[in-house]
């Protein structure tokens, strides 16, 4: 069975630590080359991986008959690379956010749907084992009706300068971190919430916000999200309260109470307190980054467009973030993508 040829665009840490190794390890895909605008970085990655490196996506497309394109570049470049890939008939895995505006994301999703290619946005949290368990609990309706959800996602300030340029990043911490949480929320509550309140703060002298709070209404279910670039060690926690129980989770621990019976998972292991549903949740040591890339590769190999987070999910996420920025009165919101791309240091 012939392996699908993968081209990776961008050669930062996301590409070299995760995309190239994961696609190389998958039985149905093989990485045939990558694109990187920075000469020194391109030579370095070519030397360590043995893969041919190209100056840009166009050169990569010209050199190989690609089946899959993996986009690991800053957000303002996503649309042009994505549309070129779709024009070449390629399936596309794109790092989040899909685009820097909902309008841009919509053009991408429409093009992919018309071409019939497989797409996925690289949201991560749903692939942590405890998030998978939580989604299963909620899908089984074990908490009863959901009453309220609270999300806190705090991370270290990014080291790459382009994150702080809204013409490249499309925003600050809200555009950077909230997509992961919104993806999980949409899986449970649907993709059409109303933004009821939003605010941003500038904790440091930057052009984009490094703290944001957003309140959503999912058909009567209130959801409150807060996010900052403040922590050396990142923390991301969900708390879901239902009529029959509650759960709280992060990447390492899931605990809660269902019908008066407590339970807890920690470190990917079986329950600390056995609720009698342990068989639903086997341990899984696969890295979440690898899991999401392998999941996409499985769908691409099967030609199955029903991925966990297709481009249409990226549109829904972008619509909420755009609306949050509008509600918060962010003046630079709505800039169109820079099709010429970022400076050379702009890779992920």
UniProtKB/TrEMBL annotation:
Residues 131-248 form the GFO/IDH/MocA-like oxidoreductase domain. SUPFAM superfamilies: Glyceraldehyde-3-phosphate dehydrogenase-like, C-terminal domain, NAD(P)-binding Rossmann-fold domains. One of its GO terms (molecular function) is oxidoreductase activity. Gene3D superfamilies: Dihydrodipicolinate Reductase, domain 2, NAD(P)-binding Rossmann-like Domain. Keywords: Oxidoreductase. It comes from Halosimplex carlsbadense 2-9-1. This is Oxidoreductase. It comes from the Archaea. Pfam families: GFO_IDH_MocA, GFO_IDH_MocA_C3. Residues 5-123 form the Gfo/Idh/MocA-like oxidoreductase N-terminal domain.
């Amino acid at each position: 069975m012939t392996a699908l040829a993968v081209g990776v665009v961008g050669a930062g840490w996301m590409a070299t630590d995760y995309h190239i190794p994961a696609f190389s390890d998958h039985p149905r895909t093989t990485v045939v080359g990558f694109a990187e605008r920075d000469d020194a970085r391109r030579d370095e990655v070519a030397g360590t991986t043995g893969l041919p490196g190209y100056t840009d996506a166009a050169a990569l497309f010209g050199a190989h008959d690609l089946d899959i394109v993996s986009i690991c570049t800053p957000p303002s470049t996503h649309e042009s690379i994505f549309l070129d890939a779709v024009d070449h008939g390629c399936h596309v895995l794109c790092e989040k956010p899909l685009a820097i505006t909902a309008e841009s994301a919509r053009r991408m999703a429409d093009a992919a749907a018309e071409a019939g290619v497989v797409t996925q946005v690289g949201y991560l949290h749903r692939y942590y084992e405890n998030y998978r368990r939580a989604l299963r609990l909620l899908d089984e309706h074990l908490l009863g009706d959901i009453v309220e959800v609270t999300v806190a996602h705090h991370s270290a300030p990014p080291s790459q300068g382009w994150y702080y340029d809204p013409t490249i990043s499309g925003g600050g911490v809200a555009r950077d971190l909230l997509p992961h949480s919104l993806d999980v929320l949409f899986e449970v509550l649907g993709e059409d919430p109303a933004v009821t309140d939003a605010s941003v703060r500038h904790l440091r002298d930057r052009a984009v916000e490094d703290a944001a709070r957003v309140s959503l209404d999912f058909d009567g279910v209130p959801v409150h999200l807060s996010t900052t670039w403040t922590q050396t060690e990142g923390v991301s926690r969900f708390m879901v309260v239902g009529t029959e129980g509650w759960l709280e989770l992060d990447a390492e621990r899931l605990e809660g109470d269902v019908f008066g019976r407590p339970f807890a998972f920690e470190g990917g292991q079986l329950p600390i307190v056995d609720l009698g549903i342990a068989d639903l949740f086997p341990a899984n040591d696969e890295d979440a980054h690898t899991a999401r890339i392998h999941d996409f590769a499985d769908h691409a190999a099967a030609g199955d467009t029903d991925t966990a987070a297709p481009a249409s999910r990226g549109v829904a996420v972008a619509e909420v973030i755009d609306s949050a920025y509008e509600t918060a009165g962010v003046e630079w919101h709505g800039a169109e993508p820079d099709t010429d791309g970022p400076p050379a240091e702009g890779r992920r």
